């Protein structure tokens, strides 16, 4: 049995869940999300809980889909109630970011400022050198943060660039200047 998949999902008071065939729709205070269920997985509502099940639990691929579906639906419920956020840190002299409308304007060492269009369902705030990406869809928030990080990845010599707030950059030693023994 899937240890994750067999756990029931509690539905909070402010959240409504609708199951239409293979589609699950979750509405809450932070928005609404849709998810298409895999073919072998069934989702049943029991009072204030949701239960995910598969026909043959001993088949490895069924167990994997069972746990995955349970986590996806649980993340949808978490997203419409509390939302998700990712924090990115900008390091470098003169590097800065600014959030305008649905755009993020980054000055990160290029000859021009980079304008990043935020996808629908995400928001960005900038506090000093920290960019905070928020939204109700966990996958969309993580993907947006990864795309922003890809604009200027942190380099290993001075650590300049855009990195996750909890990311550790392994530093490399730079070139060592040769002394007088190198000249003859």
Q: What would you note in describing this structure?
A:
This protein binds to the 23S rRNA, and is important in its secondary structure. It is located near the subunit interface in the base of the L7/L12 stalk, and near the tRNA binding site of the peptidyltransferase center. GO terms for molecular function: rRNA binding; structural constituent of ribosome. Part of the 50S ribosomal subunit. Residues 11-83, 92-164 form the Large ribosomal subunit protein uL6 alpha-beta domain. A hairpin with a 2-residue loop joins β5 and β6 (49-53). Helix content is 20%, strand content 36%. The chain has helices at 60-81, 138-151, and strands at residues 9-10, 16-20, 23-28, 31-36, 42-46, 49-53, 84-91, 96-100, 103-107, 114-117, 122-127, 130-135, 161-164. A 4-stranded antiparallel sheet has the order 11-12-7-13, with helices on one face. A 3-stranded antiparallel sheet has the order 1-6-5. The termini are far apart.
Quickly list its features.
184 residues, alpha+beta, Outer Surface Protein A, domain 3, 2 domains, three-stranded antiparallel β-sheet, 2 helices, 13 strands, 20% helix, 36% strand, elongated, rRNA-binding, Ribosomal_uL6-like, RNA-binding
């Amino acid at each position: 049995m899937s240890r994750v998949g067999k756990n029931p999902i509690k539905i909070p008071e402010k959240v409504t869940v609708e199951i239409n065939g293979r589609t699950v729709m979750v509405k809450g205070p932070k928005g609404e999300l849709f998810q298409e269920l895999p073919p072998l997985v069934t989702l049943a509502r029991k009072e204030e809980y949701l239960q995910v099940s598969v026909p043959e639990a001993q088949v490895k691929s069924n167990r994997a889909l069972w746990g995955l579906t349970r986590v996806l639906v649980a993340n949808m419920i978490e997203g419409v109630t509390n939302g998700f956020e990712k924090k990115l840190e900008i390091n470098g002299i003169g590097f800065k970011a600014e959030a305008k409308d649905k755009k993020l304007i980054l000055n990160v060492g290029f000859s021009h400022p980079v304008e990043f269009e935020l996808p629908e369902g995400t928001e960005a705030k900038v506090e000093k050198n920290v960019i905070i990406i928020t939204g109700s869809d966990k996958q969309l928030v993580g993907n947006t943060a990864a795309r922003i990080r890809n604009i200027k990845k942190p380099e290993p010599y001075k650590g300049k660039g855009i990195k996750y707030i909890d990311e550790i950059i392994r530093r490399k030693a730079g070139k060592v200047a040769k002394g007088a023994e190198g000249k003859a």
